[in-house]
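Folding follows sequence. Below is one example:
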Amino acid sequence: MGIDQLLVIGFIAIFSVASGLLKLLKPSGAFAAFFTGLSVWAGFGLKGLTLMGVFFLTSSLLSRYKSKVKEQLGEIHEKGSARDWAQVAANGGTAAFAGVANFISPDPVWLLVLAISLASANADTWASELGVLSKQQPISIKSCKRVPRGTSGAVSGFGTAASAAGSLLIALTALSLFGGNLVWVLFVFLFGLAGSLADTLLGAYFQAGFQCVRCNVHTEKMSHCSTPTKQVSGFSNMNNDAVNFISCFTVAILGMSLYNLL
């Protein structure tokens, strides 16, 4: 192993540890981020690592943006802004898979999988982190009624615009790093946006929803007010991490398959 490779591995390790120290990641999240970064670098080099870095840095910064305003969402969301290993795997697992696949059997199609998965993750994160700041409450796609900000399976105009911007950023960054054509960029952008929409659909119809038996608040948590909550919707094993992973992986594979057909 050459000195350049050791330096890159050291950089990934330092970046992961620093993210943990800055409370962007929990210890388990920093550990998962290290191996995710290694996988992406192994398959796509420094350019792939840069693309993943754009997703991680923008999503982490947005999670801190107006954090005081978002504190009330702690009643709804299962987890806080510091990501654990499951959240890292949910958003970066498909990218890591693409990196390993491209390392073992190089093929341009794996770059498309990488880009779409990160565009989907970025689109969903931007929608979540910025959508909750909308002046109007979102509308549930299941009930077509307005629901509290941060509710899974709900959309707003501002959140949808943020989702499109997040996907477009990854598509354009991938273009600047790896090159490509308009069709390729359009594929990444549209499937990234589709991943965010798929996440919303899964969140509305399949993600487990709970209700506190004491204060009646609807939440993603299995415990609230120091008391176990009552499941009122979805499947018990389908939490937000599972929804994120399924949506990212599905649109990446669908995008790869359609691109190959065309």
About this structure: The longest strand covers residues 230-233. The helical segments are 3-21, 27-64, 67-70, 85-104, 108-131, 157-178, 182-205, 240-261. Residues 3-261 form one domain. The CA atoms of residues 54 and 74 lie 26 Å apart.
